[in-house]
Amino acid sequence: MSVKYFLYIFVTIVVLYAMDSININGIFKKNKILQARIFYFLLALALIYLITNFIWDFVEASKIIY
Fold first, then answer.
1. Is residue 63 scored above 90 in pLDDT?
2. Can you tell me the distance from the alpha carbon of 42 to that of 55, in angstroms, rounded to the nearest whole number?
3. Residue 47 and residue 18: Cα distance in Å, rounded?
4. Could you tell me which of 48, 42, 61, 40 has the C-alpha nearest to residue 7?
5. Are 52 and 4 a contacting pair, CB within 8 Å?
6. Long-range CB contacts (< 8 A, 24+ apart) of 21-29?
7. Is 53:8 a contact under the CB 8 Å cutoff?
8. pLDDT digits over 11-54, tens only?
9. Residues with Cβ within 8 Å of residue 15, at least 6 apart in sequence
10. Are the C-beta atoms of 19 and 43 separated by less than 8 Å?
11. Is the separation of the CB atoms in 54 and 61 below 8 Å?
12. What is the DSSP letter of 40?
């Protein structure tokens, strides 16, 4: 298995742990539970993708220096 897969798993755990501290109930309208869950899911996916690729690109770029 590639190192990037392990990085995705690690970042997923960290992002979900961090997003658990956000109170998103105040952002959405009343009785819009499904839309809030979809937004939460898409936001988590976007953060996981961006953070993982940032770390991966940073590691790859640092290999060029050596």
1. no
2. 20
3. 11
4. 48
5. yes
6. none
7. no
8. 999 999 999 888 877 888 888 889 888 999 999 999 999 999 99
9. 44, 47, 48, 51
10. yes
11. no
12. H
